[in-house]
Write a structure and sequence with these properties.
Tetracycline Repressor, domain 2, mainly alpha, 203 residues, 10 helices
């Protein structure tokens, strides 16, 4: 029987880091930012406190790195097929909006919402979030350019996207603060309003 090759130190460190990031996201979703402790993350990840401190010096650094990890993995797994060029402008807008809605119901946004709310009174967390939010907006724009290149090339698209993102995150916040709210039922009406607004601006 061939002996299994020993992992290098770099491989062990990468495995430890990934375990911490995955555990952190799960703890964040279950306990919220206020209830999350590095001790709970370490226990779930099955690593030592020393290993956690080696990779991440603060709680804020850890949670933002965890969200970036999820975003990177999600982006790598995402297969983007451009919309049919035969669609009308309105049909392309509707299809794009539904795709953006699907992205915002992924687990990264409820976790991010936890951090947005906590960052209001946590200066350290707010500083850590800045670069991540800019990167997330950039990724969203690239997603739109790949999915609907003709639509994304319109001069008014950036302002349209900014409005769409504000609406989407507002709906996520609504569900976040009131778990009984069925935002999926609200979305079609919001989507129609967004398209109507875009048509008015274009005209």
């Amino acid at each position: 029987m061939t002996a299994k090759p020993r992992r290098t130190q770099a491989e062990r460190r990468a495995t430890t880091r990934t375990a911490l990031l995955e555990a952190c996201v799960e703890c964040l979703l279950e306990q919220g930012y206020a209830g999350l402790t590095t001790a709970a993350v370490v226990q779930r990840a099955g690593v030592s406190r020393g290993a956690q401190a080696h990779h991440f010096s603060t709680k804020a650094e850890l949670v933002v790195a965890a969200l970036r990890h999820v975003a990177n993995r999600f982006g790598a797994e995402l297969v983007i097929e451009p919309l049919s060029p035969e669609l009308t402008l309105e049909q392309a807008q509707l299809a794009l909006l539904d795709q953006l809605w699907a992205l915002h119901t992924d687990r990264i946004y409820p976790a991010l919402m936890e951090l947005w709310l906590a960052a209001r009174t946590d200066e350290e967390l707010r500083a850590e979030l800045g670069d991540f939010e800019n990167d997330l907006t950039r990724r969203t724009m690239v997603f739109c350019q790949k999915l609907a290149p003709e639509l994304a090339a319109r001069p008014d698209f950036r302002s349209f996207l900014a409005t769409v993102l504000a609406a989407l995150r507002g709906l996520i916040l609504l569900e976040f603060v009131d778990r009984g709210h069925d935002v999926a039922r609200i979305w079609p009406g919001v989507r129609a309003q967004l398209c109507s607004m875009a048509a008015t601006d274009a005209g």
